[in-house]
Amino acid sequence: MCPQPRTAHLPAAASATGDVGAGRRAAARRRAGVVPALAVLTAVVALASCSSSGGTSGDRAVGSAPADTGAPPTTGGPGRICLTGTLAYDHHDAEAGPDKVKQLTTSVARGTTWQLWGRTSASGAEQLLATGRTDQHDGRFEACSDQTGPLPELHLTFRSSNGNLWKAVDPTTRAEYSFDTPHLTDIAASRDLGTVKAPAEQQGAWKIVDTLGDLYRKANAANTTGSPCWTDHQSAGGCDELTFTWSPTATKGGFFDPESRDVVLAAEDPDSRHLILHEAGHWLHFELSDHWFPDAPGCENHTFEVASTGGCAWTEAFADAVAAYTLGDHRYVYSDGQSVDLHNDPTTTWDKGDTVQGRIGGSLLDLWAADGPDGGSWNKDLQLMARYHAADFREYFTVYRPKAGLPTTGPSRQIIGGHTIDY
Ligand SMILES: [Zn+2]
Fold it and tell me: Residue 374 and residue 321: Cα distance in Å, rounded?
């Protein structure tokens, strides 16, 4: 039995009216133990003076971030003092299923910004000594000062961002979440801080930042310009930044707002990585189309299995496929752990044709599959979308795939036919 899919939502209507579905879920699932918002926000600092420890950054160089210019080596150099460790966060893991989502699990926070702060003399002011990002694979950090020891004071500030490419912010203040490690004094040698855990009331922000790195790497792989930006439409130094607003008490969320260009999430929404990535997928669609979005009428209560309109089904299916492709499955997972399988065929008891979200989503995933007709990835499709702005799936398939040199016969036609779409 499919749950009512109400997470996804787009555009203007959804953002103007709020998301009833998210509010319902939040009310139903409010958990004891989730403390009220107590986001400890540090002052915004001037990144222009930052140096970077490129070696600790798991992400490839993020050229758009001023913080990443003039990077000194991270390691080496006798007497340099480093703070090392692994950044982690606790979270509810919807992908693990409806039973396990109730428990907390721990994940490493990959690709998140750190800043090394300290004083280099007893009477000196605190200064920013280095900045970088946790490793994209294992969440480790190695933050090194150019100064030789001993240092009077040293600490790390972690921020809910990845350079200037994506961030999670408080919806009211629009400040990134951040927290400090203990302020160490009289540091004569490097220290291993072990596992550093993000504060419980901020954990959703860290999960958002961690999860978006998976999408960034796949989207950037399709960027033909070689820039660090999400799409072809900007160049290094001017990349568009993906902003998520979230707080542990937010009751409105689960949509991308093309007006503000924010993804807005409610308190429990980040429990599902699919939900995070679906909404990011709407933003990616908007970015690939160079700040344009297809008309998506009749999308207020869209579902995977019921026919809506061509524009609604196309935009929602693309977002579904972005989430599943990024995570390497064929699912959509709700924040309560329930899920929908996007595999379907003519015997599946869904509506048929190209106005059905789940039919298009399943088609896209099969076209992008490792053994699929589009070259084993979504790269050529994203490049198509960066050049041609399809109003719906029919236009994408019948008009722009031929222009982009992607096949529309043979296995491609069999794939969409298997999902009840026939052109
Ligand atoms: Zn959506």
Answer: 15
303 C-alpha to ligand 1 centroid (Å):
10
| Ligand 1 centroid distance, CA of 8 (Å) | 3
User: What is the CA(239)–ligand 1 centre distance, in A?
Assistant: 23
| pLDDT tens digit sequence for 83-123 | 999 999 999 999 999 999 999 999 999 999 999 999 999 99
Q: What are the residues whose beta carbons fall under 8 Å from the beta carbon of 369, sequence distance 6 or more?
A: 376
The span from the CA of 225 to the CA of 283, in Å, is 20
- Beta carbons within 8 Å of 419's beta carbon, 6+ residues apart: 344, 345, 359, 360, 362, 363, 366
- Confidence bin at 148 (pLDDT 50/70/90): confident
% pLDDT > 70, the chain: 82
Q: Which domains does the chain have, with CATH numbers?
A: 11-34+249-418 (no CATH), 47-199 (2.60.40.10)
Rounded to the nearest whole angstrom, what is the distance from the C-alpha of residue 272 to the centroid of ligand 1?
14
Q: What is the DSSP letter of 33?
A: T
How many whole angstroms from 317 Cα to the centroid of ligand 1? 8
Query: Nearest 5°: phi and psi at 210?
Result: -60, -45
pTM: 0.84
What percentage of residues in the chain have a pLDDT greater than 90?
79
Residue 306 and residue 353 in contact, taking contact as beta carbons nearer than 8 Å: no
Secondary structure class of 278 (helix, strand, coil): helix
- Residue 221 CA to residue 229 CA, distance in Å, equals 10
Query: Of 51-55, 111-115, 199-203, 286-290, which range is least confident?
Result: 51-55
Residue 118 Cα, ligand 1 centroid: separation in angstroms?
Answer: 44
